[in-house]
Amino acid sequence: MLRSDVSAGPARTSPHDHGAAAPTATRDGDVPSDEGDLVRLLTPAGTRLDRPEHDPWVADVDDDALLALYEDMVVVRRFDTEAVALQRQGQLGLWPPLNGQEAAQVGSARALRANDFVFGSYRENGVAYCRGATPTDLVRVWRGTTQSGWDPRDLNMATPQIVVGAQALHATGYALGCRLDGVDSAVVAYFGDGATSQGDVHEAMVFAASGGAPVVFFCQNNQWAISEPVDLQTRTPIATRAAGYGFPGVRVDGNDVLAVLAVTRAALDRARRGEGPTLVEAVTYRMGPHTTSDDPTRYADPAVREHWTARDPVTRVERLLRARGALDDEGARAVAGRADAFAQAMRDGCYALTPPPSDTLFDHVLVEPTAWLERQRREHAAYRAMLEGDAS
Ligand SMILES: Cc1ncc(C[n+]2csc(CCOP(=O)(O)OP(=O)(O)O)c2C)c(N)n1
Ligand SMILES: [Mg+2]
């Protein structure tokens, strides 16, 4: 059972007592097909479960559609690995890995329509990929050559938010605007378990409930806020908090792409029907560091990581596809080849990004220049000239 299943449970007893109990293998060595109150449609062994309440939401997902979800996850994992390598090689300043969270991101993002709008944190690069970000879009900000990686209007997705939880407010505001405009768009706010401790997220939920905003609050509970475990931050499952705001909350196996797709589609549909927000808690695990600046070996228990390795989001879909005869070695190699090509394009695009002139920093601060800003621009130019004079 997941630790955050325990409502009002006791405080953590050791720094390693977090995230998951010891794995309980079944006789055939599989992990349990059911875990607590999680919505799950696909077991870690790749067995499709019958869940009459949720099945209709994914009734259209045939083998081809499942293959597409599998390929999305393989590509996302592959470019995430490439970005980490680029950072280690000094080509990116920082990267927030999403390893382990592929199903949560792909399943939810593929539930969206083109005219829906997404507000994410810094970790939603898998979502950005599904929204149509190019390989280069994904690294622009992390290389530090621009202040935003893409034009939000092109992807209907805001650029990464670093201020933890702030995007929940932006999402609620945008969703209230959609309602006032009478348009058929819904909004998703992505944030982490740690962000639910922020006042911004609370305020966003209060306003969304009051205004019946067509917004889905999608919490990826990856069990960590940097090195802070989730069970320090909440004594109840995060999804149960929704009841206090007066809208539904659902806990889903965040490593099950089908279940995530189903519950997100249902929540978006509810939003579009004018019935207001839903909180989705996708229970997953951050398999890597918080960012490339972090060292989780100082605080994360390797046994817990093993527990989650047995619940890998990509492996279970691959198992189902192979069992159905929809994927063989040759097919898997072809998918891996396309993932490699995307990663190579990301690397090539990264190398081609050159720093802009440093005084462009001042260009987008305010729409109309002010004397104060112009003075700073002049001072900066003088400083640069002094450095260049020193160098010659
Ligand atoms: C308002 C604010 N406080 C603190 C930070 C520093 N910070 C960056 S990420 C992070 C943890 C967020 O954890 P969570 O919401 O679970 O998201 P995850 O990183 O796990 O995806 C913190 C505390 C910040 N960026 N913004
Ligand atoms: Mg987290």
CATH superfamily of the largest domain: Thiamin diphosphate (ThDP)-binding fold, Pyr/PP domains
CATH topology of the largest domain: Rossmann fold
**N/C terminus separation:** 66 Å
Q: Secondary-structure element sequence?
A: HHEHHHHEHEEEHHEHEHHHH
What CATH architecture label of the largest domain applies? 3-Layer(aba) Sandwich
Side by side, the strands of the main sheet go: 1-2-3-7-6
Percent strand equals: 5-15%
Instruction: Report low-confidence residues grouped into runs of 5 or more.
Output: 1-29
Average pLDDT number: 92
- Going by helix content, strand content and strand pairing, the class is alpha/beta
Q: How many beta-strand segments? A: 7
Major β-sheet annotation? 5 strands, parallel
Number of domains: 2
The level 1 CATH classification of the largest domain is Alpha Beta
Helix tally equals 14
Keywords: Oxidoreductase, Pyruvate, Thiamine pyrophosphate
Organism: Cellulomonas fimi (strain ATCC 484 / DSM 20113 / JCM 1341 / CCUG 24087 / LMG 16345 / NBRC 15513 / NCIMB 8980 / NCTC 7547 / NRS-133)
Region (Disordered): 1-37
Enzyme class: oxidoreductase
Record the SSE blueprint.
Elements lengths: L62 H26 L13 H8 L7 E3 L5 H6 L4 H9 L8 H4 L10 H16 L5 E6 L6 H13 L3 E7 L2 E2 L2 E2 H4 L8 H4 L3 E5 L3 H16 L5 E6 L18 H8 L3 H11 L5 H24 L18 H21 L1
Parallel strand pairs: 1-2, 2-3, 3-7, 6-7
Antiparallel strand pairs: 4-5
Helix pairs in contact: 1-2, 1-12, 1-13, 2-10, 4-13, 6-7
The structure holds thiamine diphosphate (TPP) and magnesium ion.
